[in-house]
Design goal:
The protein is an all-alpha fold. It is built from three helices and no strands.
């Protein structure tokens, strides 16, 4: 491999690593904020109407699953971008081959 190809790969994998890290980190941050708000609102609802506690708990767990699914999808996208076949590397190598 010549130096031009190595530099092209470095210029692609570096920002890809930063993007994957940001994607995973911001997904974790958003999930933590979402769980905090969700738990706080659940406790407010139970404090107001304790008789609705089972229904509110069921809805809280449903929404917690949706919030957690967002984080899982973001983490998978970040890991795919970094470890799986990065589409930008193939395009750069084909452009350098010409």
């Amino acid at each position: 491999m010549n130096v031009t190809k190595l530099l092209a790969l470095a210029h692609i994998t570096g920002p890809s690593a930063i993007a994957a890290g940001l994607l995973i980190g911001l997904a974790a941050l958003g999930t933590a904020i979402g769980f905090g708000i969700l738990g706080g609102k659940f406790l407010e609802g139970v404090a107001r109407q304790p008789e609705l506690s089972p229904m509110l708990m069921m809805r809280m767990f449903l929404m917690a699953g949706l919030v957690d699914a967002f984080a899982a999808i973001s983490i998978v996208m970040g890991l795919f971008l970094f470890f799986a076949s990065n589409p930008f590397i193939g395009q750069a190598l084909s452009a350098l081959a010409k």
